[in-house]
Amino acid sequence: MTSRITCPTLAARVTDAEQAATHIRPGMTVGMSGFTGAGYPKQVPQALATQIAAAHERGERFGIRMLTGASTAPELDGVLARTGGIDFRLPYQSDPELRERINRGEIDYMDIHLGHVAQFARSGFFGPIDVALIEVAAIRPDGALVPSTSVGNNATWLELADTVILEVNADQPAGLEGMHDIASCPAPPHRPPIPLTTPGQRIGEPYLRVDPSKVVAVVETHGPDRLTPFAAPDDASRRIAGHLVEFFRHEVARGRLPANLLPLQSGVGNIANAVLEGLREGGFEQLTAYTEVIQDAMLGMIRDGLITTASATALSLSPAGVADFVARIDHYRQRIVLRPQEISNHAELIRRLGCLALNGMVEADIYGNVNSTHVAGTRIINGIGGSGDFARNSFIACFMTPSTAKGGAVSTIVPMVSHVDHTEHDVSVVVTEQGLADLRGLSPRQRAHAIIKHCAHPDFRPQLQDYVDRAYLHSRGLHTPHLLPEALSWHQRFLDTGSMRV
Ligand code: 0RQ
């Protein structure tokens, strides 16, 4: 037994990655750990990829259905996509190899709300789960599992899968023990309320449980998570943060938000990270977070006492962020709770806590519909992730982006979004470096006026105003005026010429 595996029954199942991978066979559905590059299995997927490649060499077909928490890393999504070993994937991804194959039509990808996955799986919507492949930080003497740097859907995969493979990663900080809170959601009908009323509350236990008789292999691993450095905040993201700070101050002054705001949710990506950096300058104190990922900027705010408590389902840190996390892990354990994603993203809890949702987007249209996922309507970038869980249920849902993309060739404010992730009914605020449009209480035509005036880049504003003016004259219905043959012509022009400019 090693210091990380102190359960005799499970220590007896220790084997190597190659042997463990043989339990995953063609056509199986595998529930894997991993959320935004944290806590994913690091060795069995690579051994599996080798076995898949060998099968393909022999002319045998070998593909699996792969369910995770969210995005993983090159050692998982990347390597399996490259071998042609993924037939089906859900619910969120960001790996370039995987994305390319999805967009080539070679892999079926189901992009669904992260908060729905566990319930759908338990209800059998994805069919039987054959194998769970889960990274943990340690196994305790009684067989309880110390979760790793993400929780995601691990409890659900461990519960539902016929067989379980565990990776015990000795490089994950031992001090993670005690940071997690594992609770599950009862099934309908007559579900009781989930008894969580503050972001830092603990309603479960710190360990994952597994039936030891299902564990067919335990693999000892090493290696860091996918640690991606964040871009330094640029001028656009600083200005976006500035508009949000001003907006929140205004809301506090009007008595619509408390002085320490409401629990923050901050999405993935550079802009979301940079905006939190900007909120530091806003002078807010005693903040809390009820979110799904903790990126560097939020960790820094927890370290400096600006955020007192943060609830999430995963960390997503840079190398510098991890170094800080490990160095101060006792401090962070008092302030961070990592939960299953069905709890971190639960509609009931987001609504009860009244979260302030801050998410990036690809584009918004003049009426406030938001596209978070697709370039020009057909090429997926990542997925909706948790942005929909939070947008629909938060107290105020903010979507942010620079007003142009692709070096200024593309306007991120368009007549009609080329794909809808968040409808006009779920979007409270649109913000670009140009300004902030507060859409609450506005009709579609009022929203178009606010978005063009405050958010559109000056180079595209006349083009948008011209569209709206002509739509008001010629549209059949004037509730949401459109010129249908022209509504998506900006995207077609971008595809044809590389630019949305006329
Ligand atoms: O592509 O790198 O090839 O140039 O899209 O854009 O500017 O790097 O933005 O890192 O903030 O991510 C929406 C993707 C923004 C993210 C999105 C191109 C742009 C670039 C990325 P290149 P940036 P960010 C909870 C919340 C959905 C999930 C979510 C996201 C690339 O925020 O995935 O919110 N959100 N989850 O050039 C053409 C446009 C474009 C465009 C950007 N209008 N047209 N290309 N790009 N706008 C967390 C989780 O759910 C896990």
Automatic annotation (TrEMBL):
Provide this UniProt record's keywords sorted from A to Z: Hydrolase
Among InterPro entries, the record links this protein to: AcetylCoA_hyd_C, AcetylCoA_hyd_C_sf, ActCoA_hydro, ActCoA_hydro_N, NagB/RpiA_transferase-like, Succinate_CoA_transferase
Question: Would you identify the family this protein belongs to, as annotated?
Answer: Belongs to the acetyl-CoA hydrolase/transferase family.
Which Gene Ontology molecular function entries are recorded, alphabetically? Answer: hydrolase activity
* Span of domain Acetyl-CoA hydrolase/transferase N-terminal: 13-220
Q: Where are the coiled-coil regions?
A: none
Keyword Hydrolase in annotation: yes
**Key word Ion transport present in the record?**
no
Protein name (database record): Acetyl-CoA hydrolase/transferase family protein
Tell me where in this chain the Acetyl-CoA hydrolase/transferase C-terminal domain is found. 321-467
Among the Pfam families in the record, one is: AcetylCoA_hyd_C
